[in-house]
């Protein structure tokens, strides 16, 4: 009994003892460490006296470049490669750095970065309600001596900022970004079949390169490589890019094509463009008088099909071709052929090369394209050695809302021998479909 009482007394003494030897695992409170990181990020952004050069891929669209200057009063001055105006005129807004899921950089008034998130598809051509699936809030990831990297809070795209030089700042402020972009675009207007060579001598292979400089959601602000491998088989690869003062920078750590990682396309001198790989090797951009690979050979590899977007007649379409396409587009509103009111519609050509089949899908929508009804027709085809197609009906336009208004295109496909070729306008490559029997009938489409 005495032993039990002894242990009870000892335990009470131990419980009452003060823990004077406790040492905290961290020497600062969480809120203190958060405050220090906010100060670190804020000071990094505002202390770069010549501003930052930024790059940002979007989750659903292409890539975009920016020049951004931050000051201690939370003002932002910005240029961007979205439009001619954004490249030449400074946009002004505000920013904040705060603690949330991490240390966040927030653009809390509308600016050029906000345009990529704009739910109005008429602003830049993004998808209705979600734009290009891009962020206006970014979480700090890490920094180096000359750069700082954030990650988009929702769409997880890397927003990279690299310190600008005084010379670069002066060019941006003088409107030089637009001048640089225009020079780049003009090179590809003049040189319509650009390529680089892989290998050397008799083994050299011509690889076509195609930068799409538009804001098209599906194919814009991407650069494509297409060409034969060592085995002769055609392959294709694409990656997002943003414009720089010297050319373009390929995003997402570069474009891998036939085992080589290409990272940028820059001016070697005043008139010569060169591609550079991750190892720094140079590939001069040359031009072919004729297309390197006929369009008909790229169905199912580089291109899955063609698109006629809502009420859009693309450059190169003839008057008689426009009549055929507009029979669909202009009859989306109520009329004797169609009793319904549609606020969106498009025509898609979808190729199945293995089965030698073409499907034409006519989409109609009353939700601005968020959801569509599809009227389909399908055709088998044969081609000759000159690339002339002859189509045979497999199934007519299915019962659907567009069954009658797609008939002119359906009739054209069956009544004509058809050729497919490229049509290039202002640096944009379209697909051209023309009649052999009546060369005045020409229709152009976005390539997909």
UniProtKB/TrEMBL annotation:
Matching Pfam families, A to Z? DUF4302 (PF14135)
The cross-references to InterPro entries, in alphabetical order and at most eight, read: DUF4302
Q: What protein name does the entry list?
A: DUF4302 domain-containing protein
Q: Which organism is it from?
A: Pedobacter steynii
């Amino acid at each position: 009994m005495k032993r039990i009482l002894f242990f009870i007394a000892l335990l009470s003494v131990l419980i009452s003892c003060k823990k004077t030897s406790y040492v905290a695992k961290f020497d600062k409170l969480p809120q203190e460490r958060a405050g220090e990181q906010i100060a670190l990020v804020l000071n990094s952004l505002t202390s770069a006296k010549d501003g930052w050069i930024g790059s940002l891929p979007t989750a659903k669209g292409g890539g975009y470049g920016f020049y951004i200057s931050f000051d201690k009063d939370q003002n932002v001055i910005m240029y961007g490669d979205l439009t001619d105006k954004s490249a030449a005129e400074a946009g002004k807004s505000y920013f904040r750095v705060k603690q949330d899921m991490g240390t966040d950089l927030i653009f809390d008034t509308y600016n050029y970065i906000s345009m990529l998130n704009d739910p109005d598809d008429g602003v830049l051509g993004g998808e209705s309600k979600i734009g290009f699936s891009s962020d206006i809030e970014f979480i700090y990831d890490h920094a180096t001596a000359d750069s700082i990297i954030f990650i988009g809070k929702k769409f997880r795209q890397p927003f990279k900022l690299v310190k600008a030089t005084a010379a670069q700042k002066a060019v941006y402020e003088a409107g030089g970004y637009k001048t640089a972009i225009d020079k780049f675009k003009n090179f590809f207007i003049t040189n319509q079949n650009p390529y680089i060579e892989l290998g050397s001598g008799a083994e050299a292979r011509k690889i076509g390169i195609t930068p799409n400089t538009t804001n098209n959601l599906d194919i814009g602000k991407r650069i494509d490589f297409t060409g034969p491998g060592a085995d002769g088989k055609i392959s294709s690869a694409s990656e997002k890019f943003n414009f720089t003062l010297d050319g373009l920078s390929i995003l997402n750590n570069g474009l891998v094509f036939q085992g080589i990682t290409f990272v940028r396309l820059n001016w070697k001198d005043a008139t010569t463009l060169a591609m550079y790989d991750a190892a720094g090797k140079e590939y001069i951009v040359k031009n072919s008088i004729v297309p390197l690979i006929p369009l008909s050979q790229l169905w199912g590899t580089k291109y899955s099909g063609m698109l006629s977007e809502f009420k859009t007649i693309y450059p190169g379409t003839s008057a008689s071709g426009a009549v055929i396409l507009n029979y669909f587009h202009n009859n989306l509103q109520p009329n004797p052929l169609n009793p319904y009111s549609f606020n969106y519609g498009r025509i898609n050509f979808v190729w199945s090369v293995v089965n030698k089949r073409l499907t034409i899908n006519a989409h109609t929508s009353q939700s601005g394209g968020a959801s569509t009804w599809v009227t389909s027709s399908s055709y088998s085809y044969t081609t000759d050695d000159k690339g002339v197609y002859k189509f045979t009906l497999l199934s007519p336009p299915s019962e659907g809302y567009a069954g009658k208004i797609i008939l002119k295109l359906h009739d054209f496909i069956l009544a004509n021998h058809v050729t497919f070729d490229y049509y290039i306008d202002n640096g944009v490559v379209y697909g051209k479909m023309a009649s052999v029997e009546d060369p005045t009938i020409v229709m152009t489409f976005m390539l997909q």
